[in-house]
Amino acid sequence: MYRVWDYVRQNDEVGKLRIQIAKLEARNQELTERLEELRSNFEPLSMPWRENGVFSQEVCFDKFKAKDQLLRNIRELVHPKHCKDINLLVIGKLGSGKSALVNTLFTVLRNNGQLANLAPPSSPYKESKTPMLHEIVLQNIPGTKTLRVYDCRGIMPDKKQNAVFTEDLKKVIDGNVMKDYEFDETCEIQENDDFYRNNPTISDKMHCVLFVVRADDLDEQKDVAAICSMQMYLFRKNIPSRMILSHVDKLDMCVYGDLTKLFVSRHVQKKVELAKMIFSLQDIQVLPVANYVKGTTQNIAQDILALQAIENIMNETISYVGNRI
């Protein structure tokens, strides 16, 4: 009798060992594949995945001249006379880098060497620090015009909360919601609300929406329904949008994280292609940016990436507003 139980016990132990070995072999294979991927990511492409005109392998460029030229290009844009203000709206999940993007855009346009902190950043583990519709003037444009960006709370994992929030965002886009409106998780803004605008002009409406998504966890983007819903709304109204890939500096960058090599980075290219596939976007709509989240002074490579994004956004936005006569 004891021999039978010993035999069963021994076989049970052997079975457990086999399971453990199988798990270790699977983990070893996973780590081997990850190591191969890392080696591949750190190997630069022979040609840039996007011709950007600034960070070029072949041309030794003056980064400061390139930055100054981008600033001049943005300042010299001709804005439509019939629209007083150009308005941008930033949308993204909690912790995606929305507020950091706003601070980065303000920093590079102000260009005084110091980092801005007008929009308080949040994280996926804390309550949103932007519960209201926060307005920031990015730039005063000649002719009493302004470039304004609007920040708001992040998209939450709760689908019920997002259903109310996305309806409010549609009203923000249409110009019905005034700045400093505090979003209510339980009900949409009503027409009798003090922050509701009944007859918005073109200067009150949003002219481009910036969706912010973290490049370093793009593979984990499961809750995309709210963003896709907003994309469809913009598509029906023919309102331009851009996808801002934040945290690109957290990717496996070649040449020890040198941002000037971003456009020959295999990992960044993979993330851009993935974003295009997930959100059905054109190449020109996906803009990689490394937001300012640490430090106290500006970095030339981060400035250039942000300014390239602004130039792209502004050209599209001004064309859109110019056709809304």
CATH topology-level fold name of the largest domain: Rossmann fold
- What is the ordering of alpha helices and beta strands? HHEHEEHEHEHHEH
Question: Which architecture name of the largest domain does CATH use?
Answer: 3-Layer(aba) Sandwich
Cα end-to-end separation: 94 Å
* Total separate domains: 2
The helicity comes to 40-55%
- Number of helical regions: 8
Strand share of the residues? 5-15%
Strands of the widest sheet, in order across it, are: 2-3-1-4-5-6
Radius of gyration: 24 Å
How many DSSP-defined strands?
Answer: 6
The CATH superfamily of the largest domain is identified as P-loop containing nucleotide triphosphate hydrolases
Q: What is the mean pLDDT?
A: 85
Largest sheet: 6 strands, mixed
Parts with pLDDT < 50 across at least 5 consecutive residues = none
Structural category: alpha/beta
| Approximate shape | globular
CATH C-level label of the largest domain: Alpha Beta
Organism: Magallana gigas
Protein name: Interferon-induced protein 44-like protein
Keywords: Coiled coil
Coiled coil: 7-41
Task: Describe the structure in your own words.
By secondary structure, this protein is α/β, with parallel strands linked by helices. It folds into two domains: 1-41; 49-322, P-loop containing nucleotide triphosphate hydrolases (Rossmann fold). 42% of the residues lie in helices and 12% in strands. The chain has helices spanning 2-41, 63-75, 98-110, 159-173, 225-237, 254-257, 266-279, 300-322, and strands at 85-92, 134-141, 145-151, 208-214, 241-246, 286-288. It has a six-stranded mixed sheet, with helices on both faces. Helix 2 (63-75) packs parallel to helix 8. This is Interferon-induced protein 44-like protein. It comes from Magallana gigas (Pacific oyster). Keywords: Coiled coil.
